[in-house]
Design brief:
This is DedA family protein. Keywords: Membrane, Transmembrane, Transmembrane helix. With about 160 residues, this protein is mostly helical. It has one domain. Helices cover about 80% and strands about 0% of the residues. It is built from seven helices and no strands. Helix 1 packs across helix 5.
Amino acid sequence: MPTTTQPTAFWIALAGLFAIAMLRGQGTYWLARLVAHGSTRVTENSRPWRLRVAAWLDGPRVAVGRRLLGRWGLPLITICYLTVGLQTIILASAGLLRVGWVRFTLAQLPGAIAWAWIYSTIGIAAFEALLGAAISSPLGIAVIAAVAVVVIATIVVRRRAR
């Protein structure tokens, strides 16, 4: 919750996280919807990224999402924002199943608000506590530096492999 000294920062974080949740959800929905529309034109000669996206959308994970969405309906779109690992699958399934945009967006709103609220309150507090504890010890600083090096090295290696 916001403190009396930082209410503006809280509301900025909340608004930013809400925008991120909405943009990510809409992006996933529309990407899946467009790929579903164009999937009849995906051939062996298509670009590699189109083949990967089409294969993922036809894969077992998204099939689970389609079954769940078919069984539980639009409330699952709201609830998926409170899960780890199902969010992208459910949002993509909504696009594949061609759920109407207005219905999708109305189902998305409460989930995006809840996600933004949780991450702007509990999430930021937990991150600050973890970071404060890590910075207060030499071992914590070494771990943070090592993680940063691994992340940067992974990004560089993957970009060079392409």
